[in-house]
Amino acid sequence: YEPYVAVPADAPRFDERFAGYGKNKIQFIQHLRMEGFSFVVMTRGFVIHVPHDHSRAYKTWAVSKGGRRTKNNELFQQFIKERMTSSHIATPLCKSAFSHQAAVMMGQ
Known about the structure:
Layout: H1 24-34, H2 56-63, H3 67-84, H4 95-105
């Protein structure tokens, strides 16, 4: 599922280094977390997702073992390292997600 969020106008913007497909939404949510944003579930809110074919960018990414896929993975790790020292995280990750993120940050 996609991370659908509603944010104020002064929220961080998407990082334009993440072109094509992959890691852009993950980076955006992490950026919000690192800026101290809190997340809540809107129990009476909903969105509707209309099924559609995969985009050309996704199809290219899905079969790629290098190229844009590798570049976006590396950019994500670089972003985390850049931001981690000045972060103000208000929404912690669950234990299993933290273990995965720590492995990603360490390049494992």
